[in-house]
Structure formats: C-alpha cells, structure tokens
Amino acid sequence: MRKVHLISVTEPLLFDLALAIHQKGYEVSVSGVGLTDTTLARLEKEGCTCHGDGWFPERLTKDIHFVVLGAAVRQDNPELIRAKELGLLVLSIPEFIFQRTKEKTRVVVAGSRGKKTIISMIVCALKRQKLAFDYALTSEVPLLPDRVHLSYEARIAIIEGDEHVTSALEKRFQLEFYRPHIAILTNLMWTSATDHATPEAYHTTFRTFASSIERGGKLIYFDGDPVVKQLAQGVREDITAMPYDQHVVVEKEEKTYLQTRYGDFPVYIPDRFFLINLNAARLACRQLGVKDADFYQALSEYSVSLQP
Questions:
Q1: In angstroms, what is the C-alpha Rg of the chain?
Q2: 92 located within any domain
Q3: Domain count, the chain
Q4: What is the superkingdom listed in this entry's lineage (predicted)?
Q5: Same domain, 195 and 75
Q6: Are 207 and 183 in contact (CB under 8 A)?
Q7: How many CB atoms neighbour CB 191 within 10 A?
Q8: Which domain CATH number covers 209?
C-alpha cells in the first residue's frame, strides 16, 4: 500500500482530501497545528495516522510516495524541510487535484462571487440525472457530504477555483493549475485579501486562467462585468466564449416562475444574484449533457426547497 503524508491538515480542504485519499486505498498520515480532540478522533476513526498536535519531521520516511503541502505551510516548516532532505515528491493541493482529474472533464468555477451557488446548482442537476462526478471544493456545499470526492468511475470533475497563492514552494496561483475544459468566470472584485497587490495583478491571474483552458474548451462568463467581458473577448480562437446574464422570470398569481421555451417553472429567488448564477450553471450543465428542460426541473425543485 502506497504511503502519503499531508502537511497542515487543519486546512479544511486538506482534511477532506486526506479522507478522500485514504478511501482510494492509500496509507495516509497527516500533521497540523491546532488539531482538536474532535479532529484527532475523526482522523483515527477514518484510518488516517496522526501523531498528535504539531510537527513530527522524524516520522517522515523515504518510503512515502508523495507529500501534499497545505497552502498555509511556510518554507521553514520542519516537515517540509525533512521531506526535501529525503528527496520526497512534494505536491501542492491544486497540483495533486489536477493529477487525479487529468483524464476527466474538468469544470472549474472561478471569480469573486457566486461560486458556491453555481456549484450547488450544477451538483443538483447532475444528481437528478444520476451523472457521477468528482469534486474538490473550498466551500461547503449542503448537497455534498464533504469538500472532496475522488473516484475512478466518474468522468466529470467539478473544481472550485481559488485565486490565492498555491504553497510555500509554488508562487503561482491555484487557478493556474486546473486547465479546465469548461470554465465559469463570474465577476472580478479585487481586494488586498486576494494575495494580489493591485487590481491589475488580480486581473492578470484570471487572464492566465482563461488562457489555460484546454484546446476546444468553453469559457462561460458573466456579461455584466466589463472586466470579465473584455477578458472573454481576448481568449484564443479555439475557445468558445459563452456569455450569460440574468434569467427571465414572470409573475403569476403572486408567484414567480422561470420563463422558458419548455414552459414556466416555479422558482424561489433567495437573493438578487440567484437568476444570474442559474444561467451560468445551466450553460455548464448543457455542456455536460444535461438538457435544459431537465436542468430547469431540477433547479425549480432545488430553489423551492430553499424557501424558509
């Protein structure tokens, strides 16, 4: 059984990744600072080895197949130093996710707002159609039991794109690794918390993301954001840029319905972005083989279930 070690398992995505790797048949060990008794108990229950709270570089051995490095790990981390001394293969989270989804159709949802909602809608539609999919998410999606799921069978992988720095060893941004077949770009709102010094640097990262789309891929973009629209207009000729905006609704007898060519579907609108996000998810699902009529039925049921 191949051994894998994950550094900084207190990062939520890395914790779920550890469990997913173990479920794939690997012998998994983890470490981190700030581990609670609850977390340690869960790791033990799931079969992952953890020697307690803190770093244990002496526990790393040459027979470890690879090490996955959390985004928050610093260059002076004693386990990272030991891994390099032993000549172990060290991968960042996005590098690992790409390697495990390389043969799948990758859908990457990126942008400053709406990612979680769009992913929830895609998940809802795929589940209703009984289409198997893998996923790697930074957000918690109520329709899913955890943030990461990896399988051999699924031909689709849904990835939540993150614009932050990848790791202590890799200063490229996480978005730059995934090479999507279908990319969704919502809107771009720069803040200093994005790991980018200026708006221009932030926009450059997303231009790089758009240029990383696989040959013949799709860029589904929000037409209402001028920066995103300009970016989409500059993509390679082999990439199909598909704009989206707010979906049309109609009011009847004090109820709201999605107005579609397949009829009107009742819908609950929890916020002003919901109808915009819905169209992004619809276009992505269409590329994955979900018919619009089936998508509308799924989203109608999903939205109504959100009513307080």
A1: 21
A2: no
A3: 2
A4: Bacteria
A5: no
A6: no
A7: 9
A8: 3.40.1190.10
Taking only the tens of pLDDT, the chain with its 308 residues reads 899 999 999 988 999 999 999 999 999 999 999 999 999 999 999 999 999 999 999 999 999 999 999 988 999 999 999 999 999 999 999 999 999 999 999 999 999 999 999 999 999 999 999 999 999 999 999 999 999 999 999 999 999 998 877 776 777 888 889 999 999 999 999 887 778 889 999 999 999 999 999 999 999 999 999 999 999 999 999 999 999 999 999 999 889 999 999 999 999 999 889 999 999 999 999 999 999 999 999 999 989 888 87
Phi/psi at 94 (5° precision)? -65, -35
Q: Retrieve residue 82's tokens.
A: 């030991």
Q: How far apart are CA 79 and CA 32, in angstroms?
A: 10
Residue type, 19: L
Residues 83 and 107 in one domain: no
Reported pTM:
0.93
